[in-house]
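Record filed below.
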Amino acid sequence: MCFLCKWDSRASSSHYHIKYFEERKENIIGDLNGIHESLQSMNLPKDKVILPPLHIKLGVVKNFIKSLNTQGYAFKRIQTIFPRLSAAKLKEGMLVGPDIKKLLQDEEFYGHLSDMQKTAFDFMQLVISEFLGNSNAQNYAENIESMLIGFNNIGVKMSLKLHFLHSHLNFFKENLGAVSDEHGERFHQDIKVLEERFKGKSQSVMLAEYVWGLYRNLDTSENSRQAKYRKAY
């Protein structure tokens, strides 16, 4: 659910057509699409909530890829670009930051898109580079609106992340680049490597390996800092 308004992710008939929804003043689990306790019910001030640009970007690209025909040339080109990703992951559009950058720069993939898909793709690139980055273009609101119109035209389903861009654009911080997503990006890349290594094995083992990897890196960094301190004195 949206913690700001009464938008319903299952009410697809209102998606893209209704921009403003009634403000959500209370959260009742099991009512109005509420599954978990909301941020508001925890008395957390809204100005303390930061919408992470990395996850918004991942969600935007994910929904675009999910709208592609899996039998079409554009989707098959994605399989060629990322041969090590499983078909299930590609179908769900589960890419990390470097993968997205590589996809956006691939001219052959762009050439396989239809005219309507190219329009949506072009505005998606502008939104990623000129809004979900280190700076905001003066016309970022118009670019986002054009992207959403393009998404609606090609049948991209509205998700919670797209809903924030559609209905709560004024809730984003003025400079999203000031919000560091370095740790989140590193997590996605590390998990991608582990998933390839532990394919078909226990998920608990994979999680344990990830935690030990963090511990080893922390221990190495600490030893390095101590060595530099001893050398200096």
User: Anything to note?
Assistant: The chain has ten helices and no strands. The longest helix spans residues 203-232. The CA atoms of residues 18 and 167 lie 9 Å apart.
